[in-house]
C-alpha cells in the first residue's frame, strides 16, 4: 500500500485522505450519493442530496468484501448490522458533499468529500473534522482508510482485501502513528 493512502492529521481534531480514482467525476459522485452504489463500499441508505436533509446509513462491514472474515472479539459488536444517523450539510454536485457523523453522547463530527478532475482520473479528498479525541481519530482513520480501499477496488474492478483484517491492521498502524509523540 502506498504511503500516500494514509490519512494525515491536519489539525488536532481533523484527518484528511486523498485518493486518485478512475473517472468520470459523475461516476464517483454516484458512489457517494446513490444508496446501491454507496452500499458497495460504505453503507446503503437513501439520501436526498441537498443541504438540510436527514438520512441513515445501514452498515454491514463484513459483507463489503468477498472474504467475510469476522472481526476479532474487540470489534465483534460491529460485526452485524448497525444504523447511523446523518444530516447533509453541503451538496454541490458533482464536487462537494458534506454531512454530519455520529452524535449520540457527543456533538457530531463532520465529513466532507471533495471531487476534482485530475487528468482522466478523479481526485477524492475526504476530510473528517471535529473528532473528539485521539481514540476517535484512530478509529475514524482506520475506518475511512479501509472503506476507501474498498471503494478503490470496486471502481477499479478488482477484489478488495477482507474488511476486518484490513481495518484491524490499519487500526494498529494508526494507533502507533497518531498516538506517537513524534507524529
What does this structure look like?
This protein is an alpha+beta fold and 183 residues long. It has one domain (3-179): 2-Layer Sandwich (Alpha-D-Glucose-1,6-Bisphosphate, Chain A, domain 4). Helices cover 29% and strands 30% of the residues. The chain is built from 4 helices and 7 strands; from the N terminus they run E-E-H-H-E-E-E-E-E-H-H. It has helices at 25-33, 35-38, 134-156, 163-179; strands at residues 8-11, 14-22, 54-59, 82-92, 96-101, 109-118, 121-129. It has a 7-stranded antiparallel sheet, with helices on one face. Strand 4 (82-92) and strand 5 (96-101) form a beta hairpin. Helix 3 crosses helix 4. The radius of gyration is 16 Å and the shape is globular. The two termini are 19 Å apart. The model has no long low-confidence stretch (mean pLDDT 92).
Give a quick summary of the entry.
This protein has a single domain (3-179), classed as START domain (Alpha-D-Glucose-1,6-Bisphosphate, Chain A, domain 4, 2-Layer Sandwich), CATH 3.30.530. The protein has 4 helices and 7 strands. It has helices spanning 25-33, 35-38, 134-156, 163-179, and strands spanning 8-11, 14-22, 54-59, 82-92, 96-101, 109-118, 121-129.
Amino acid at each position: 500500500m502506498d504511503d500516500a493512502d494514509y490519512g494525515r492529521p491536519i489539525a488536532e481534531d481533523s484527518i484528511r485522505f486523498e485518493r486518485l480514482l478512475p473517472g468520470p467525476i459523475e461516476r464517483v459522485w454516484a458512489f457517494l450519493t446513490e444508496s446501491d452504489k454507496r452500499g458497495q463500499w460504505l453503507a446503503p441508505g437513501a439520501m436526498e442530496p441537498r443541504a438540510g436533509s436527514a438520512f441513515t446509513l445501514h452498515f454491514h462491514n463484513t459483507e463489503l468484501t468477498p472474504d467475510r472474515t469476522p472481526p476479532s472479539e474487540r470489534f465483534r459488536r460491529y460485526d452485524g448490522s448497525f444504523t447511523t444517523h446523518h444530516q447533509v450539510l453541503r451538496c454541490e454536485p458533482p464536487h462537494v458533499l458534506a454531512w454530519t457523523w455520529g452524535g449520540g453522547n457527543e456533538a457530531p463530527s463532520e465529513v466532507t468529500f471533495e471531487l476534482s478532475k485530475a487528468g482522466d482520473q478523479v481526485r477524492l479528498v475526504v476530510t473528517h473534522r471535529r473528532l473528539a479525541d485521539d481514540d476517535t481519530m484512530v478509529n475514524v482513520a482506520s475506518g475511512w482508510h479501509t472503506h476507501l480501499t474498498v471503494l478503490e477496488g470496486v471502481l477499479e474492478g478488482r477484489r478488495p482485501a477482507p474488511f476486518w483484517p484490513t481495518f484491524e491492521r490499519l487500526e494498529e498502524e494508526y494507533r502507533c502513528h497518531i498516538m506517537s509523540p513524534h507524529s
